[in-house]
Amino acid sequence: MKLLKLIFFLLFFIFYLNNVYGENSKVDEISKNLRCLICQGQSIYDSQSEFALSVKTLISKKLEKGDSERDIYDFLKSKYGDWIVYKPDFNKYTLVLWIFPLLLFLFGGFLIVRKVFIKGNKI
Amino acid sequence: MLNLIGNYSLIFALLISLILIIYCFIKFKSKKNLDFNLIVIIFLQFTLISLSFFTLVFAFINSDFSNLAVYNNSHTSKPLFYKISGTWGNHEGSLLLWLMVLSLFSLFFLFKTKKLLSSFRVLTIFFQQIIIVGFLFFIIFTSNPFQLILPTPIEGLGLNPILQDPVLAIHPPILYLGYVGSSIIFSSSLAALTCNYVNKDWAADIKNWSLISWIFLTIGIMLGSIWAYYELGWGGFWFWDSVENVSLMPWLCLTALLHSSSVLEKRSILQSWTIILALCTFILSMSGTFLVRSGILNSVHTFANDPERGVFVLIFLIILVLISLILYFKFNHSETTSKSFFLSKETAIIINNWFIMYFLSVVLVGTIYPIFLEIITEAKISVGPPYFNQLIVPFLIPFLILMALGSKLDWIKNKKLKLNIKKLTLLILSILISFYIVRNLNIKILYLTVLISAALYLFFTTIIDLKNKKLKWSQKISHLAFSILILSIILNSVFSEELSVNMKAGEQKIILNKTINFEKITKQEIDNYTSLIAEIEINQDNKKIKFYPELRFYKVSETITSEADIKTNLFNDNLLVVNYLKDTDYLNIRYQKKPFMMLIWLSAVMLALGGLIGLRDKLK
Amino acid sequence: MKIRLSFIFLFCLILFVAFVFYKSLFDDKNYAPKNINNKIENISIKEFYTDKNFYLKNLFEEETLMAINIWASWCIPCRQEHRYINKLSEIDNLKLVGLNYKDKKNSAQMFLRELGNPFDIILTDTDGTKSIFLGAYGVPETLILDRELKIIKKYIGPINSDIVNEIKTIIK
């Protein structure tokens, strides 16, 4: 009975998902990942400032020209610095940023395994 | 006159602090029992500090502009409620509130722990007084709220209408109760460590203080999100902004501490780990506040401070951290090992702590990494929502499932092993079924399906657990609340809809399946701004909603603010916000549908409620 | 007390963290992007009156440096700085280029009639995208470029007499 209820709910949500979950436009996607440099904590997507509107226009022009998402980010970073992009790149500067929490997780796992299995606790 | 009383009360309180530190140290060494005198002296200190605080409140209420803090932050035309809340809306006043809460918890601690070891209690007061002394020095000598300005100005400077908001007024005190509440956890841990008192009794007590701090932090964080959502009108409630992260980190630490102290209380293991968690909570609270206020982390919360003030706080922090480090390594004894089996509540809580520490490390690294990078390499990067989402969400999936399975395990050894494997099979089966149902698969849809399945599974499990008599109500309610919170957040982010269009009054446009009718604009002059209210109707499938978003043009500061019109009901929020477009009659209209917002707020309240029930149970 | 390795490690870590925080307290918060020495692409921008396209490099005649002032009639600080822009036209060997940002032609012309037109040539950026190629945030901004279109100096915000003097010194 519980299994049936679970399946019913899952079905409902999957179908709802298929109907509603639409693709965001590419411009929206890119501008959500960009920081509005003259605003207080808004993304280019959220902001209606002159700067943000100009950037959005630029993005659609460049997309029309055939530039990739990567090209646009690189271009904007060359003009305004890395910090205009919200998602940090994966390069030698940010290696520690991305890897450190994962390493910590593995280290924690190692400690736990040592404590639970090796230090006198048995299954 | 009042200013003098306020100032000298603090100085006397400082003297008492110094006396207390020496007194407690001597008492501890002599191993005599606690005097009645100690409670009286602490009460006196609390009275002095409260007196100081209330003189400041009176100064604000009476618009006493001879006080510099009042002059900078208040105005005669402010409503009474905001005059009062202006007391803690500035750097100096907020520190005084911190101080009052610190001494309140000292007093509270003495009253509530009468049955515990005497030397431990004395030592806790000793450490708490060290913290109080640090704050008193900082306030009296660098951030004094009782500075005079002569001749007395007629009017104050503090009239920013944007800051006059009820939620914004009560959000700081509630957060402070959370942050500062963790100070007693810190002091108590150091004392227990030194007295070799890290045992069941201590764990039972520390759980109470953790619950108090945790409840206030939960509500405080929720209020901050609510304010951001309703005030900013962007439809978002969490931006992984530095200030938000700084409040989230102690909360995560406290959640882990609540669980770990339960293990310590029941099974007398995990002593070292519990101590570490307890110390980290307060250190995170203080470091976070320091980072935000000193301006190192950019935020709207930065009080304009001199770097010298920041140096003072930094030194104070380092002293506290080094004291903790030295005492930990000096007094920490090797663990008592108890026999536990793998499939037990102890293991489940250890795994819970493991995941929570991972989430904490992601938030911590993401928040402070840019600072380190900039100092070391001069490269400036942003660490924004994509980072946090990408590292946290994948780990949520196993976390939710493990939480559903693990919260019912028995202490020491779980008996009904087969039932758990059956439930796991159920889960895998349902996922496989949904996999077959979803025809047009791409990686994202599959990923989301798994995530939602995990959240749903937790939700159903916690609902079924409500009938389980073996579990405590505080756990059942908190876990159910948490599952609703996570589920609402996930569904909200997946099912949000948005459209943006430029229109002028009198126009009608059809986008997707919605008709937008921009009917008219009403202009009005109010106080110090011009108000432009747009009347816009959205029609979808013959369901009509009328919105009245507002634009405010402030003449003096030449700023324009936009007030969103948000229509809330239990399962969905409809937001409409307009933005001014320069040089045209057109306005940018942004309509958003945000499902389950109300559930997010309610489940947060329910979460705190679970904590409250836990507190009530313990105090019986 | 036995001094353990983990204690020493943590102690050093704490001092390191404290050092970084200490330094960042005194760090200058104004972010000057490293592209101060960047070269700008030789983009073409429409001229204000004729709508003809001009390449930036081709604007140079015998001058060694070019000053591009980004302005707009709706920008209030631009009005206040304009008298100093007028002073820049007195400097020899400096090509003074005006870039009209997201503006209406009539309003811009009225602005110049009222406050003076010091520019050797005026270009127009109606949608703001050209200014992004210059790395601009908004108005007013003034850039000093050499013949290779390398950014020598960037002034964000209105200029004043000190900056005019500074530019005079750079020219020499």
Low-confidence stretches of chain C: none
- The dominant shape of chain A is elongated
Kindly state the percentage of residues in helix of chain C.
25-40%
Mean pLDDT of chain C: 88
How is the CATH topology of the largest domain in chain A named?
Helicase, Ruva Protein, domain 3
Low-confidence stretches of chain A: 18-23
CATH superfamily heading of chain C: Glutaredoxin
Task: Please estimate the helix content of chain A.
Answer: 55-70%
Q: Tell me, what is the CATH class of the largest domain in chain A?
A: Mainly Alpha
Name given to the CATH homologous superfamily of the largest domain in chain A: Cytochrome C biogenesis protein
Distance between the termini of chain A: 33 Å
State the separation between the terminal residues of chain C, measured CA to CA. 68 Å
Helix segment count of chain C? 5
CATH architecture of the largest domain in chain A: Orthogonal Bundle
The radius of gyration computed from the alpha-carbon positions of chain C, rounded to a whole number of angstroms, is 22 Å
Radius of gyration of chain A: 23 Å
Largest sheet of chain A: none
How does the helix and strand content of chain A classify structurally?
mainly alpha
- Number of beta-strand segments of chain C: 7
What's the tally of helices of chain A? 5
Offer a few descriptive terms.
heterotrimer, A: 123 residues, Helicase, Ruva Protein, domain 3, 63% helix, B: 620 residues, alpha+beta
Structural commentary:
The complex is a heterotrimer of chains A (123), B (620) and C (172). Chain A has helices spanning 2-20, 26-32, 50-65, 69-80, 95-118. By secondary structure, chain A is mainly α. In chain A, helix 2 crosses helix 3. By secondary structure, chain B is α+β, with helices and mostly antiparallel strands. Among the domains of chain B are: 1-164, no CATH class; 497-598. Chain B has helices spanning 2-30, 36-61, 68-73, 80-85, 91-112, 118-142, 166-195, 200-232, 242-267, 271-293, 307-331, 345-377, 385-406, 417-437, 443-465, 473-495, 597-619, and strands at residues 497-503, 508-511, 514-526, 529-540, 543-547, 550-554, 559-563, 565-568, 572-580, 587-595. In chain B, strand 6 (550-554) and strand 7 form a beta hairpin. The relative contact order of chain B is 0.07. In chain C, 35% of the residues lie in helices and 23% in strands. Chain C has a single domain, classed as 3-Layer(aba) Sandwich (Glutaredoxin). With 172 residues, chain C is of the alpha/beta class. Chain A binds chain C through residues 37-38, 49-51, 53-55, 57-58, 61, 76, 78-81, 83, and chain C through 31, 33-35, 38, 102, 127-129, 131-133, 135, 137-138.
